[in-house]
Amino acid sequence: MSITIRDVAQAAGVSTATVSRALRGLPHVDPETRERVRRVAAELDYVVSPSASRLASGRTGTVAVITPFIDRWFFSTVLSGISDVLQESDVDLLVYEVGDPATSPGLPAERRLRGRVDGVIVVTLPTDAPRIADMLEIGLPTSFIGVRWPGVPSVCIDDAAAGRMATQHLINLGHERIGIISGRPQASTSQASRALGYVTAMKGAGLTPESSLEAHGYFTVAGGEAAMTSLLSQPNPPTAVFAMSDDMAFGAIRALQRHGIRPGGDIAIASIDGHELSELLDLTTVGQPVEQMGRIAAEALLARMLGQDDSADEITVPTTLVVRGSTVPVERTSAG
Predict the structure, then answer these.
(1) Do the Cβ atoms of 245 and 220 come closer than 8 Å?
(2) The CATH number, out of the four listed (1.10.150.120, 1.10.1040.50, 1.10.260.40, 1.10.760.10), of the domain defined by the range 5-55
(3) Dihedrals φ, ψ of 236, to 5°?
(4) Which CATH number applies to 60-157+289-318?
(5) Residue 142: alpha-carbon gap to chain centroid
(6) pLDDT tens digits, residue range 90-108?
């Protein structure tokens, strides 16, 4: 079994990037650490390969993260996981916030990436977003979070299964008129998959989804509040609602409270995310390991940058239904 740079890093108690810098005589490594790394490498009979030197000695020592938003919980939590891994490997992080893909011009121009970064992580941008294909043609190592692209490592949840899980939970509690708060009219891949899960669960229970019981919340708290208000205005409002994100569910809960309706007690609410505030608001949610998704994507990218892994695995991380007080059996509700 051949010795890898990871073996040397583990034995020396440093990152793989530090090993590469130390063995290539690059700066930013203190003399004592450099000597320890060289000694361990000699003991293990490790020889630096050109591909393994890319991470530390590449053009920049920097990875770009391209994300629609920074200030929203999902994206900031993903960035936290990415940042942890990159810091462990002494790699700098450059963030490009490109805005809502439905309204923004899309990715940064290729010239802003070429020569400035050694790899790219793309977070939840739809695969038809402007310039994604052009960016990939640059040839930089790349990984995706929340979307899948042929030949590129991706980290996702099973959105259809998550949508089905949340909806099925409401059905199991006896609800039949189940509304849905979706994101936006132009559905992203994940939104379409979550909607598919909702429809699959409804039809599997012999229930017919009603278009009048769908409202768009645009993945924001304010949007969720407006969507819930719209659903409440229906002549026969739902007894339960599936919101595609915790942020929209938070807004839905606020709308219910402002109308004197008890979340869970009168109308059940279930969503997807696992936001840290969901416990505080007693929200039933399908939790996804968001920070872990960032870490996995960063690790997959670094492996490619080191030439250690050229696979293009689609990694599907598990989700878990966390039941709280926002969902109760239908016999305890008074709505409808």
Answers:
(1) no
(2) 1.10.260.40
(3) -130, 85
(4) 3.40.50.2300
(5) 15
(6) 788 999 888 876 666 556 6
Q: What are 193-229's pLDDT values in tens digits?
A: 999 999 999 999 999 999 999 999 999 999 999 999 9
Residue 134, H or E segment: helix 132-137
d(CA 240, CA 173): 10
d(CA 94, CA 83): 10
What span, in angstroms and rounded, lies between the C-alpha atoms of 132 and 165? 31
Q: Say if residue 233's pLDDT is above 50.
A: yes
Write b or e for each residue in 23-58: b if 16 or more Cβ atoms lie within 10 A of its Cβ, otherwise e.
beebeebeeebbebbbebbeeeebebeeebbbbbbb
User: 143 CB contacts (<8 Å, ≥6 apart)?
Assistant: 119, 120, 121, 122, 152, 153, 154, 155, 297, 298, 300, 301, 304
HSE, side-chain direction, 13 A CA sphere, residue 168: 14
Give residue 324's identity as a one-letter amino acid code. R
242 forms beta bridges with 180, 270
- pTM of the entire predicted model: 0.79
